């Protein structure tokens, strides 16, 4: 199987839903201001001279698949040249082109273009990741001695921001897909060809990609319909040339064109070039159509500083939605391989309760392979950092039926490419019972810079996952007085691994010790990420600047989480009661409205000091009260109970990305 099919959704979908009839014009109008600004910054060059009435055909090949070299032999024999859009992160891997092969293509007159580092959906990434994917990809290819002027959007996914980024990275043009009339239903009103002077150089129109349903006649029609309607530019997009099977397997590859069909089309096209004088047909590369010169490289965009402590999973609770309408959680992507159908959906309630969400994967039509949800295989925005030689502790909650699940692991190389690593043990289906599983990885391979792992589904069935964790075991904290059988073992371990508690010098946590107001301030401050504390005068006279938790208490006051007592003091050594803890957490969330249906405890009557705060805590599933139905608001809260409260609060309201 290929790298792309091992862990990503297959390439550009046929006739993407975001590009319905009429969208092409709207896209260009929306992007005009941004592109004009980019042009003023980098100095766009006018397109090459192309005669009116000509039909110019460009043969483009996406994704660096090695089987495309079969087509190269045919093109060379006919003195025709193509444009090959290569994701630099795929090169030099099994079933993909090598650096030497790309250099040989260029030496033979073919064009090499950019296609991002990891075949990323550029609309779904943040601004820094966008620049790394586009600019760094061009820099890597240029470093191989390749002249890179043209770009193609993976998944045909773009907007005004991506177009501006491609321009700023020094490209002269960028190709989309699905905006020119073709055999695909829904394209009947589209233009017959792109203009030879494209209205938007950073989203040039092309027919839908070719797949194994396209006949020779379908391909010929793309050319003849342009000829019959005034000519123009027709960009054909191929992915695989050959047997129609995924390399090394018996699995059909839908994005394939048989060698015979391609050769027949190439011969026919050569005949059109040779014989059509009234309505001439030419074959050109993208840069021959666009013209211009090779622009300077944009600066390399470094990856963010690696995170080495705490939970390394971004958006671990899957609550934050994806960017620009993505249907998957932020920093997560669909994955899978083999013969099966995979569908993903956000579902509620999540593991933490009715106010939270989880991600559901349904696999059907299973023959082999798997489906899975993974932290995004990117260049640094979302993928968890990793240190070669270290092992990592992974945890996740899941429910499933019909099939087993396991952790599926991948790692990123120093070159920015991703490789399959290993899989963990199989876990049995769990019906409707939330179950947490843990897995310690092998040592991270030499040269790896990041890892990605998620639960998969091996067979027909449904898998729902939520609340992932990943820790470097070198930093995993354990306490001598908290065995794995302890009631709040998971909650206390989570607090320690996320640096919210460090325990005592003797290696204990002391779960039954009551919490004082100073320690409480420290816990909430660390949970918030130890933010900068606004400069202000000493807030409380009984908390001098020399106090162990002076900074933390100052922050608590600055956020309105505490107002102190009527005497002006904070009372840092006074014990925290359960209702006071409810008030602190309620204010930390910004004092939200409390549902009229929120639970009521018999010992927290209407009119009591923290009535709303306690009801809100229960409504969010942060507290469940005691077995007798009471909350016991005046009881002092112990350290283990606070760990449970903060852990559950995080499930509902996780720290930011």
Compact overview of the structure:
With 657 residues, the chain is α/β, with parallel strands linked by helices. It has helices at residues 3-7, 23-42, 69-77, 99-107, 127-143, 160-168, 216-227, 259-275, 286-290, 489-497, 517-527, 550-558, 578-588, 611-619, 639-652; strands spanning 55-62, 83-86, 111-114, 148-152, 173-175, 232-238, 240-242, 256-258, 281-283, 332-337, 341-347, 358-364, 370-375, 392-401, 407-412, 418-423, 435-440, 450-457, 461-472.
Helix-strand blueprint:
Layout: H1 3-7, H2 23-42, E1 55-62, H3 69-77, E2 83-86, H4 99-107, E3 111-114, H5 127-143, E4 148-152, H6 160-168, E5 173-175, H7 216-227, E6 232-238, E7 240-242, E8 256-258, H8 259-275, E9 281-283, H9 286-290, E10 332-337, E11 341-347, E12 358-364, E13 370-375, E14 392-401, E15 407-412, E16 418-423, E17 435-440, E18 450-457, E19 461-472, H10 489-497, H11 517-527, H12 550-558, H13 578-588, H14 611-619, H15 639-652
Parallel strand pairs: 1-2, 1-6, 1-9, 2-3, 3-4, 4-5, 7-8
Antiparallel strand pairs: 10-13, 11-12, 12-19, 13-18, 14-17, 14-19, 15-16, 15-18
Helix pairs in contact: 2-6, 3-8, 5-6, 10-15, 11-12, 13-14
Can you walk me through this structure?
The protein is of the alpha/beta class and 657 residues long. The protein folds into three domains: 47-290, Glycoside hydrolase/deacetylase (TIM Barrel, Alpha-Beta Barrel); 323-474, Jelly Rolls; 475-652, no CATH class. Helices cover 25% and strands 17% of the residues. The protein is built from 15 helices and 19 strands. The chain has helices at 3-7, 23-42, 69-77, 99-107, 127-143, 160-168, 216-227, 259-275, 286-290, 489-497, 517-527, 550-558, 578-588, 611-619, 639-652; strands at 55-62, 83-86, 111-114, 148-152, 173-175, 232-238, 240-242, 256-258, 281-283, 332-337, 341-347, 358-364, 370-375, 392-401, 407-412, 418-423, 435-440, 450-457, 461-472. Strands 1, 2, 3, 4, 5, 6 and 9 form a seven-stranded parallel β-sheet that branches. A five-stranded antiparallel β-sheet has the order 10-13-18-15-16. β3 (111-114), α5 (127-143) and β4 form a beta-alpha-beta unit. Residues 1-46 have low confidence and may be disordered.
């Amino acid at each position: 199987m290929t790298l792309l099919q091992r862990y990503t959704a297959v390439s550009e979908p046929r006739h993407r839903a975001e590009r319905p009839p009429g969208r092409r014009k709207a896209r260009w109008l929306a992007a005009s201001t941004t592109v004009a600004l980019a042009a003023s910054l980098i100095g766009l060059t006018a397109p090459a001279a192309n005669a009116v009435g000509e039909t110019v055909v460009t043969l483009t090949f996406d994704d660096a698949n090695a089987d495309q070299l079969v087509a190269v032999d045919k093109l060379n024999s006919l003195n025709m040249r193509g444009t090959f859009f290569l994701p630099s992160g795929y090169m030099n891997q099994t079933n993909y082109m090598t650096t030497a092969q790309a250099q040989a293509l260029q030496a033979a007159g073919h064009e090499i273009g950019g296609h991002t580092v990891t075949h990323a959906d550029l609309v779904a990434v943040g601004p820094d990741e966008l620049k790394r994917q586009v600019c760094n990809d061009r820099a890597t290819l240029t470093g191989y001695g390749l002249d890179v002027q043209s770009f193609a959007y993976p998944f045909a996914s773009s907007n005004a921001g991506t177009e501006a980024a491609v321009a700023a990275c020094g490209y002269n043009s960028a190709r989309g897909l699905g905006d020119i009339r073709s055999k695909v239903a829904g394209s009947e009103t589209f233009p017959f060809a792109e203009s030879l002077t494209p209205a938007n150089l950073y989203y040039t129109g092309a027919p839908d990609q070719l797949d194994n349903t396209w006949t020779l006649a379908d391909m010929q029609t793309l050319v003849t319909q342009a000829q019959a309607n005034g000519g123009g530019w027709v960009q054909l997009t191929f992915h695989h040339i050959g047997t129609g099977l995924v390399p090394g397997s018996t699995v059909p590859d839908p994005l394939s064109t048989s060698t015979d069909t391609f050769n027949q089309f190439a011969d026919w096209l050569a005949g059109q070039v040779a014989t059509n004088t009234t309505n001439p047909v030419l074959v050109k590369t993208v840069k021959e159509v666009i013209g211009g010169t090779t622009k300077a490289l944009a600066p390399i965009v470094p990856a963010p500083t690696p995170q080495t402590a705490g939970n390394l999973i971004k958006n671990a609770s899957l609550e934050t939605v994806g960017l620009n309408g993505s249907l998957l959680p932020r920093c997560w992507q669909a994955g899978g391989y083999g013969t099966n159908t995979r569908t993903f959906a956000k579902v509620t309630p999540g593991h933490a309760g009715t106010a939270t969400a989880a991600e559901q994967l349904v696999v059907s039509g299973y023959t082999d392979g798997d489906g899975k949800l993974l932290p995004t295989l990117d260049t640094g925005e979302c993928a968890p950092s990793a240190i070669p030689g270290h092992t990592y502790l992974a945890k996740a909650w899941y429910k499933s039926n019909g099939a087993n699940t396991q952790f599926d692991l991948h790692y990123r190389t120093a070159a920015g490419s991703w490789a399959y690593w290993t899989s963990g043990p199989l876990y049995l289906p769990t019906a409707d019972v939330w179950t947490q599983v843990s897995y310690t990885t092998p040592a991270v391979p030499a040269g790896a810079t990041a890892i990605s792992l998620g639960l998969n589904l091996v067979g027909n069935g449904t898998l729902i996952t939520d609340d992932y964790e990943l820790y470097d075991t070198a930093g995993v904290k354990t306490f001598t007085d908290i065995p794995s059988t302890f009631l709040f073992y998971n909650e206390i371990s989570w607090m320690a691994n996320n640096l919210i508690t460090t325990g005592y010098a003797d290696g204990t946590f002391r779960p039954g010790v009551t919490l004082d107001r100073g320690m409480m301030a420290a816990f909430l401050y660390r949970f918030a990420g130890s933010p900068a504390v606004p400069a202000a005068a000493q807030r409380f006279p009984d908390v001098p600047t020399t106090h162990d938790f002076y900074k933390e208490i100052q922050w608590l006051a600055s956020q309105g989480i505490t107002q102190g007592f009527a005497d002006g003091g904070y009372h840092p050594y006074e014990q925290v009661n359960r209702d006071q803890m409810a008030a602190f957490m309620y204010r930390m969330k910004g004092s939200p409205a409390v549902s009229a249906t929120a639970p009521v405890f018999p010992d927290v009557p209407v009119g009591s000091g923290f009535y709303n705060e306690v009801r809100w805590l229960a409504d969010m599933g942060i507290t469940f009260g005691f077995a007798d139905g009471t909350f016991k608001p005046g009881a002092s809260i112990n350290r283990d109970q606070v760990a449970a409260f903060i852990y559950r609060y995080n499930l509902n309201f996780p720290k930011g990305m």
